[in-house]
Design a protein that fits this description.
The complex is a heterodimer of chains A (253) and B (272).
Chain A lengths: L6 E11 L4 E11 L3 E6 L5 H9 L6 E6 L2 E3 L3 H4 L3 E4 L11 H11 L5 H11 L15 H13 L5 E5 L7 H18 L2 E5 L3 H7 L2 E6 L2 E6 L1 H8 L4 H9 L3 H7 L1
Parallel strand pairs in A: 3-8, 3-9, 6-7, 7-8
Antiparallel strand pairs in A: 1-2, 1-4, 4-5, 9-10
Chain B lengths: L11 H16 L2 H26 L3 H5 L3 H28 L3 H6 L4 H31 L8 H28 L4 H6 L4 H4 L11 H8 L2 H15 L4 H32 L8
Helix pairs in contact in B: 1-6, 2-4, 2-6, 4-6, 4-7, 4-11, 7-11, 7-12, 11-12
The chains are: A alpha/beta (253), B mainly alpha (272).
């Protein structure tokens, strides 16, 4: 267990209840700095709500969330400049060019020498071909690269990703994963990744948290999960958990 | 760090970023610019010609030159000011960009400030050409009202911002389900603030309601200026006092609705 001051994200007894449902029900985990963690779970498992509470977009019913030592959402303005996120379900203004969008967000995040940073990202993420084109006219893969550029603009210490490669072809998805690995390696960033893509999680993440109906069902390294469930792939582990077979598999071992 | 944990810090640069974002959108879209000019022009022409017709048939209206056109132009400041504010915010919802904005270091107060600036920008694009057309067609020079126009404008734009802030809170809390309010809420003010007729026309009980609304003082003041050539400072000060209360109430409602949106997860579900 990490000491409190070294955890980039610390979630403790976190609960989120809406009128008719409990989306997150008492989860606890700590993510050390420089780690990549996968957050797995079926639809309605509570992944997005958890990420939203970490971002400060949703107020917990009870429990605490701390990001880089700041209590969320109360102290969010202390750390939002050091965080960022990317999701295919959140878009950028379509009529603005890629350069205009990145320039606006660079100013919002007070990025020093924004033009140079955008130029660097354009090279790193291969944006130059369409950087002066309207964002709405890009392909899904190009939009994902632009969203990733926006997420990396401020060199975030904490990066939250919600299905970052959804709807991408395998080649582009692989390319995005490589960029994320590079970024984590060069910036010692903490990355929390919600995904349905088990190959992606297996490749990128050193730790996997599996959620089901608001609870954490399992939390371990991919290798130990495979071993414990006696499975070859994380997808099989995920199906075991989703279909309530986790306990039986463990008991059988 | 203050007790507000930085929520009340204000960065002109972040406000500038948002204004730039809206300006990029507006300046690259001629239909959006045309829309700002089109309807005020139609309104002004219709009421202007109506006034010309009435003036030819009634001594009072002949004396009250420009009252209708003045009413139309001031009403458009009120209406378009709020619409400009709300539409800029709606652009974020249409673009599915709201989570990007709310997750950024932009403070709510900075977001609101950028929407205020854009409401004036959009209003200017629409109203300046229309006011010049009013001179060309009807010889009515709004700008000749001078300081009175400034007092009218300040009071009307303050009301429009207050309503815009309140509607923005409703949109944050209720998503695009509350969109129609952004387009229609100001029409409630049209009969109650006595844009085209004196307050005395209303039933006595409704007059109390009318006098509780800041624009009523502006429209009464405009009629006094154009008909009796008297500028009523007292009316403008009263309007300003009511506006201060309205603005504070709208800001408090916005913060409460934003808090409620965070509680209810509405910031994640900004669709219908």
């Amino acid at each position: 267990m990490d000491a409190p001051d070294t955890a980039a994200i610390a979630v403790s007894d976190l609960v989120k209840r809406y009128k008719a449902a409990t989306a997150v029900d008492g989860i606890t985990f700590r993510l050390p700095r420089g780690s990549i963690t996968g957050l797995l779970g079926g639809n309605g498992a509570g992944k997005t709500t958890t990420i939203a509470m970490i971002m400060g977009l949703v107020t917990p019913t009870s429990g605490t969330v701390s990001v880089l030592g700041a209590a969320m959402p109360k102290e969010r303005y202390r750390v939002l400049q050091r965080m960022n996120f990317e999701s295919p379900y959140v878009e950028m203004p379509m009529r603005l060019t890629v350069r205009q969008n990145l320039s606006v967000f660079a100013q919002l995040y007070a990025v020093a020498d924004a033009d140079a940073r955008i130029a660097q990202l354009a090279v790193d993420l291969d944006l130059n071909e369409f950087i002066d084109r309207a964002t709405g006219k890009l392909s899904a893969g190009q939009k994902t690269r632009v969203s990733l550029a926006k997420a990396l603009l401020n060199n975030p210490d904490v990066l939250l990703l919600d299905e970052p490669t959804a709807s991408l072809d395998p080649d582009t998805a692989d390319w995005v994963r490589s960029r994320l690995e590079d970024y984590r390696a060069t910036h010692n960033a903490t990355i929390l990744l919600a995904s349905h893509n088990m190959n992606e999680v297996e490749r990128l993440c050193e730790r996997v948290i599996i959620m089901k109906r608001g609870h954490i069902e399992d939390d371990d390294t991919p290798a130990r999960l495979l071993s414990r469930y006696g499975r070859e792939t994380l997808e099989e582990v995920f199906l075991d958990v989703a279909r309530g077979r986790g306990v039986h598999a463990e008991a059988a071992q | 760090m203050t007790a507000f944990n930085g929520a009340l810090e204000f960065s002109p640069s972040r406000v500038g970023a948002m204004v730039r974002r809206y300006w990029y959108l507006l300046s690259a879209s001629w239909p959006r610019i045309l829309d700002l000019v089109y309807w005020p022009t139609v309104q002004m022409l219709m009421w202007g010609f109506l006034q010309m017709y009435v003036a030819q048939n009634a001594g009072f209206f002949a004396r009250a030159g420009g009252v209708f056109i003045g009413s139309v132009l001031l009403w458009d400041i009120l209406f378009r000011g709020q619409l400009g504010f709300s539409i800029s915010f709606l652009e974020e919802m249409y673009a599915k960009n709201l989570a990007n904005i709310m997750m950024s270091p932009l403070r709510p107060i900075e977001f609101i400030a950028s929407l205020m600036i854009m409401s004036v920008v959009r209003l200017s694009i629409g109203m300046i050409p229309v006011s010049l057309l009013a001179i060309a067609f009807f010889g009515f020079n709004l700008w000749a009202l001078g300081l009175a126009l400034a007092a009218f404008f300040v009071n009307l734009i303050l009301t429009s911002w207050s309503i815009g802030i309140f509607v923005t809170g409703l949109l944050l809390r209720n998503g695009l389900g509350a969109e129609s309010l952004a387009w229609t809420i100001m029409f409630l003010f049209l009969p109650l603030t006595c844009v085209y007729y004196p307050v005395a026309v209303l039933p006595q009980w409704l007059q109390y309601v009318a006098w509780a609304l800041p624009p009523t003082y502006v429209f009464e003041g405009m009629r006094e200026l154009l008909i009796d050539h008297v500028f009523r400072t007292d009316l403008m000060l009263e309007a300003f006092a009511f506006n201060a209360v309205l603005f504070a109430a709208a800001s408090a409602a916005f913060l409460a609705l934003l808090h409620s949106a965070r509680e209810n997860g509405s910031l994640l579900q900004v669709g219908e």
